[in-house]
Amino acid sequence: VIPPPVIRIEGYTEDSISFSLKMNTNIKVSGYVVNIYWTFDAHRQEKRTLTIEGEKSVQKVANLTAHTPYEISAWAKTELGDSPLSFVHVVTGGTRPIPPSLKARAINQTAVECTWTGPRGVVYGIFYATSFLELYQAPHNTTTTFHNATVIVQRDEQYLFLV
């Protein structure tokens, strides 16, 4: 039987989490697959996947949001197959940023200028779709470090925007 990997939180800051991975077994490990989940808002869960080579590993995941709960799950790739999943939960330090205030204005039939307020020096995600279901399941998206973005959309459609 292949045991699940041990995930140990080594530390965290406002915008990063450091963790180690190891297996308590003599089975040869070729690497790990790690998923980091967080809730974008009340309806949308985001995920980042890391593929890590080697038996033991210490990882630092950066560019995270302050005071946000994260779930880290991992499984090991071994000579006998994949291990079961293991999970840990951690909340980053600091104060969660205030949600930005978004204004969207149609420039023409296929371009929408989005502007918002918020702190400088961070990455913003702009999500847009033609329905709430699409907005929360499979939105179009782009990222920027600015406080504005022009989004190209299909003509003759109404769009919902989230930043």
From TrEMBL:
Residues 3-98 form the Fibronectin type-III domain. It comes from the Eukaryota. This is SORL protein. The lineage of its organism: Eukaryota, Metazoa, Chordata, Craniata, Vertebrata.
